[in-house]
């Protein structure tokens, strides 16, 4: 039921734009026959009850109107400031490296949806019961009505003519109408029946009941009812002549007084905006042919444009893409290529590209006829798709060579440019991090030789020097070198060892997370190395520096620790720390993993 509620919510959200557009067109068609405005409300009804539509490049529906913004139940944001060692480098790296923050904000969205669903269903039930009760009350009051002819009845306790019934509609008239009034009132009500207005209004009320929470739908229902009555009034004047305008208006006024009928159910002669109907009757003139022709052309055009969804750029799923390459061209020359493999970044890129709308322009070249553009290459298993992003000075476009040109917007273009710039800057920052300029001198090497050990023994060697001198080399049993970051302000008391003759281990105290961190390198799987038996929160997983995965272990919906892992040759490498505080800053763990990975030999 919640899924149905979200579907209805989405359709109602889309229809808001359609309703506003129809109201605008209705004002522009003020001099056209009201039947034209009446027909336009069918577009709104279609959008309110049909959850799908066809695509067209002529669609006037914005992409943002096709979706309703819904947050995930749990949203995580990450922040990872970097301390490289110099103030200038720290400032630069913190600006360009990905933003991470372990603070998690949990939104009980599912509970809100459930509550909203119950309220929605309750509202539908109340409206339907109220409507059904009104019909039963009217029928009880009409038991004394007398049959005059065919489906026409007269009732003494009735002040307003109306139509009641769906399969066999009946016309009820008040007693005492003169012959002239009776003739055009009957014509009015028979016009309703001929056009099936009595069925249309019942269906309209059911749609209103489903979308009762949307005030624009209530406005639409009232305006549709008004247009229905105005068009019937015009039909009577057209059939009987303009000479009856004054007596017809007087009848509207007299029969509307004292009305006690639920306007959402019957089709009453005097119902609706009486003042507006009287004005429309008195001002009525037979429309010219060209006005009718233009009006119907507008209806056809607007219907096609509003019934259809925009034809959007078709994109593959995130899981189908192995990587994305973004290359920036300025004055025809490449400024560099950024490669994106992280699924989160790929999903972000696809999300930004997805709003582009198809245009009638054709693509006839490998690249756009522009000097400055951005090339986005989607690398699939058996396919390469190339998209070119650019601006021609008047608008922003995405061109897929020989396929088509799509209209985007500045925000979309800027978002892709930002992803490219951040990626390029991050690669430059990492290059600087590994260079001699940021890692100079002040490193005292200490060699630790580990003898052959049995599976039940281990030997430990503790660094006795200053905390910032924490380099461990020559794990001879494994033929690898492990170096911890020097000149740090968070690593203390490092101890290295080899466990069971096959796992290199370093333990140290992390002053930022205020707990012990274990580094292990071996051929065992990641969880065995870490010595844990927990599941991981996939929503919070981070890929750092393209090869380091930062995961948050959970057990019984509680955080158990943070695990950073990567591969080196045939070895798996992990940094594990038992942290239960979800708001803990794990900056130092991620930085340490990145440094160790970059310096392993």
Automatic annotation (TrEMBL):
Coiled coil regions, renumbered to chain: none
Domain spans labelled DUF5301: 313-406
Keywords linked to the UniProt accession: Membrane, Transmembrane, Transmembrane helix
Residue intervals of the Peptidase M56 domain: 7-280
Keyword 4Fe-4S among record annotations: no
Keyword flag Transmembrane helix: yes
Pfam families membership: DUF5301, Peptidase_M56
Organism domain of life: Bacteria
Protein name stated in the entry: Regulatory sensor-transducer
Species per Swiss-Prot/TrEMBL record: Acetivibrio straminisolvens JCM 21531
